[in-house]
Design brief:
The complex is a heterodimer of chains A (about 230) and B (about 160).
Chain A (H helix, E strand, L loop, with lengths): L16 H25 L14 E3 L8 E3 L6 E8 L3 H19 L3 E8 L6 H14 L3 H10 L7 H10 L5 H9 L3 H14 L6 E4 L2 E2 L7 H12 L1
Parallel strand pairs in A: 3-4
Antiparallel strand pairs in A: 1-2, 2-4, 3-5, 5-6
Helix pairs in contact in A: 2-4, 2-8, 3-4, 3-6, 5-6
Chain B lengths: L4 H24 L2 H10 L5 H24 L3 H24 L4 E2 L7 E2 L7 H20 L18
Antiparallel strand pairs in B: 1-2
Helix pairs in contact in B: 1-3, 1-5, 2-3, 3-4, 4-5
The chains are: A alpha+beta (about 230), B mainly alpha (about 160).
Pfam families (chain A): Thioredoxin_4
Keywords (chain A): Isomerase, Membrane, Transmembrane, Transmembrane helix
Protein name (chain A): Protein-disulfide isomerase
Chain lengths: ~230, ~160
Amino acid sequence: MSTTNPLLQKPKRRISTGIVVVIVLVLALAAGVGVQYYRGHSKVEVSSPGQTEPAVITGPGTSGKGVTVGKAGAKVNIELYLDFRCPHCAEFEKDSGATIDKLVEDGTATLTYWPLKFVNPDASARLANAFAAAAANGKALSFADNLYADFSKSWTSGQLTDLGTQLGIGDAKYQQALQDNTYGDWLDSVSKAADDRGVTETPTVYVNGKQLPTDQLTADGLQKAVDAIAS
Amino acid sequence: MKFWFPWVSLIARLVLGGVMLVAGALKVTDPETAAQAVRAYDLLPSALVAPIGWGLPFLEIAIGLLLVVGFGVRATAAAAGVFMIVFIAAVSSAWARGLSIDCGCFGGGGQVAPGQTKYLQEILRDIGLLVLAGWLWLNPVSKFAVVSEPQGVTAS
């Protein structure tokens, strides 16, 4: 290399670009922190107010049993193993949520939620407990829909409280359940039941006890599986 | 310095910067997925998983932008090189431990079916990008950069 070797050059006078680069990277991290703050403090807006809320047939708290909603006596039972911090579950909800809600609403199917808590050891458990608290107050479906509808939210305790209030279930009992992790034991029993059944990932869907193949985890696939039984 | 070095550096800047920009942009909108992708490597204590998953995309975007516009190329290339070394080490470690995960480099990530892993391609791609970063460290002077550096060296 000749004297133009850049390794031998020294920047003169002005601030070295290297320092500017470091500053830019620090600013980028600051932007990340800002976004993170926003995720934990952004306002809660109920995605579909006035949605028909299916009745809770089996509430949370029965060891080894999921939360079932819908009209008792429906011919079809859809079982959904979900995790509130599982990205694929959010995608599945986006794709098939409306289909499921409709099947439940028109009495074709009941829906059983099996909330698991393995994706994010901290947040999944917290959200699953909040879901159970909401289900105990009769708002299982819209609570779950709202958690997925704004999946990028952190869903801090404050945001969960807001959501509860907006759904009309934010009473002292709900608050207490959030604080005390009231449904922790029940969630353990749900996780154990899922293990025993061989459920290893979320979302996993069963239609009348038969597992929906992974490539059928779509609105169409689910509708077909339900139609095959209901018709 | 050969006359075509600045052109090679331009291409290296655009490829490395472009890849990092895209990789960051695809992940930045989905922090939970990014955190989950980091968690799947099973390398970090749980308290660090989420901040790294959330912060990494922002750094990738910043590095990508700096490279694409051509500012502080040497320092930025060094940062990109460090990232690539970390990525290669992480993917190799996942491979060596027999995990079945997607690298989550461009969003997604997490568990995949055994046999669906692409460790070799992921590592080769990152080695290629590391080579580009190394080239830019040695030859930071490039065409069409907002700041031609180091000072005193002209791209001729």
